[in-house]
Amino acid sequence: MSAADALAAARTAGLDLRVDGQDLVLNAPAQPPQTILDLLAQHKAGVIAILRAQGEDWPADEWRAFYDERAAIAEFDGGLSRQDAEALAHACCVTEWLNRHPVRSSPDQCLWCGQAGGSNGPLVPFGTEAVGHAWLHHRCWEDWHERRKTEATDALAAMGIKDRSNTT
User: Fold this and answer.
1) Per residue in 93-126, is it b (16+ CB within 10 Å) or e — as a string?
2) Over 70: is that where the pLDDT of 69 sits?
3) What is the percent of the chain where pLDDT is above 90?
4) For residue 19, what are the CA distances in angstroms to 53, 56, 92, 115, 133?
5) How is residue 118 annotated by DSSP?
6) Please, which residues have CB within 8 angstroms of residue 116's CB and are 6 or more apart in sequence?
7) Are 124 and 141 in contact (CB under 8 A)?
8) Are strands 123-128 and 23-27 parallel, antiparallel or unpaired?
């Protein structure tokens, strides 16, 4: 088994992993299986390398530079008004934040409503194979996604990147 396999197994088990210096920090809704912990311990250096290669979050100044660049491109190259350019730049930042902060969950129950698949409809994977999936009922996705966009908007606002699309 490789570090990538160990990471995939951990994500499938619902673990959220991040790097803190030389430490691998795990967050899980319940005690992870010992086999997963053993795999992560055995492949710790490789798992840390993979997580670092996937890119840790940007500091606030890099988020603001990303926002400013998109607003400038939309305004000066795209011919949008400053307000429309800033609204588009904010939407780009929300999308980027969501991509950099994926959510993974167990395929056994819906991440939004907590119910299993079956009579409530099948559980559908949302996300990508590389980072894992959030498992939801199709009918639960819209509410869950709106909450995720609110999380992104709040995180960006804390860094000084505010949604100005509703200002006049």
Assistant:
1) bbebbeeeebbbbbeebbbbeeeebeeeeebbeb
2) yes
3) 43
4) 11, 8, 26, 31, 20
5) B
6) 108, 109, 110, 123
7) yes
8) unpaired
